[in-house]
Write the C-alpha cells for this entry.
Amino acid sequence: MYFRGYSILNILGHSSVRFIIVGAIATMTHAVMAMILLSFDRDLSVLKVNTAAFLIAVLVSYAGHALYTFKMSGSLYKYILTSIICLFINNTVAFVFDHIAKSKPVAIAVGMLVAPIVGYAISRKWVFSDRQNTKS
C-alpha cells in the first residue's frame, strides 16, 4: 500500500514514526497505571500517583525506543534525564499557554505537542546516538 508515493512500511520504518508509536504506548501505560493505583487507594495524592505512573511509563518508553525506535541500547540515565526535561518543558509550556489562552485543554495539548519533539531530538542525538554505541 502506498501513500503519496511512499510505502506504508517505509513510513512506519522511519524512526520519528516509531517514536510516536512507542510514545503512544508509554502514554497509555502512564494512564492505565495511574488508574490502577487510584483503584487501590482513591486517597493517594495526585502527585504520588502521577509520579509512580510516569516512572513506569519511562521504563516502558526506554525499552520501546531501545528495541524498536532506535534499535540500539542507549543510556538509561540519559533517557531518564531527557524524560524529566520533557516533563518540565511540557509543564512549562502548559503553564504559559494556560495564561495566554485561558484554556487548560489547549494548554495541555500544546505542551503535549512540544515536549515530544524535544524528546525525539535529544533521544536521537544524545541518548541513542551511534557515537556512544560504537565499540572502540
In short: Residues 1-71 form one domain. The radius of gyration is 17 Å. The chain has a mean pLDDT of 81.
